[in-house]
Amino acid sequence: MRVFITGASGGIGQVVTEELVAHGHEVLGLARSEASAQKVVAAGGTPLRGGLGELDVLTVAARETDGVIHLAFSNDFSDLERSIAEEGLAMDTIGAALVGTGKPFSIVSGTTSSKGRAATEQDPQSTTGPVGGRGINAGRILGLASRGVRTTAVRLPRSVHERYVAYGFAGILIQAAQRSGVSAYVGDGSQRWPAVHRRDAASLFRLMLEKGEAGTAVNAVGDEGDSMLAIATAIGEQLGLPVQQVPAETFGPLGQIFAMDQPASSAWTRDAYGWRPTHPSLLADLEAGDYPEIEV
Known about the structure:
Layout: E1 2-6, H1 11-22, E2 26-31, H2 34-42, E3 46-49, H3 55-64, E4 67-70, H4 80-98, E5 104-110, H5 132-142, E6 150-156, E7 159-161, H6 169-180, E8 183-185, E9 192-197, H7 198-211, E10 216-219, E11 223-227, H8 228-239, E12 243-245, H9 255-258, H10 267-273, H11 282-287
Parallel strand pairs: 1-2, 1-4, 2-3, 4-5, 5-6, 6-10, 7-9, 8-12
Antiparallel strand pairs: 9-11
């Protein structure tokens, strides 16, 4: 299968590209710069120069390939509304190009929350709060299942990680600790964050591309929920820093998200698609240390 991937040069996109190529697929990866193009090539794909806002490029690529995986997001947390709107328009454009084709279109989404228990795949995507717009975008794309598109959503947890390379939201805590000299948590620290190793997540994207049923959402969750305090403690121990409670506002617009208890289960996903995470847990990667250094 020849697959078009947006965000192919990103932290998740690179390993999704590697996973697909290792299983006999070809990848056409969107790349907005020469540096991004080189990353796509290094992962085994063919770069397509263009950005998420170049809708004509997205349309042609979707029509000329056998399936699409959408991963791109600007990650500009200072203007989430703009980033979410850009993502939504790009996904709508790709979806429109695929209507009636029966081609697979797998998008990235986020795990949701359910008060008092781990969220499941059957729980509705959140459409409120700082990133609620992404849930609205995802629901609209999944709705294309009724229009001849094999749409699926892979819900990623807060921390998609791999030692030294990436830590997801836990990486924001690492960087904040390196800058401030304290390993911080908000509230009482009992709120739980689900996590997944990025290579386990990549294998689920491949499975959904190959086998996912139209209109299906799956949870790419390796660890149902580590407490924020446990995460901050592991970071503090590795950096030799004190662990300290801070106001949620310390983390700007993300503070509200950090304060939420959001464990999630992938039991249904594992049973339905035979997905089995095999790589280290988030805490194992954090406790191994060797974090990337930043300028402070």
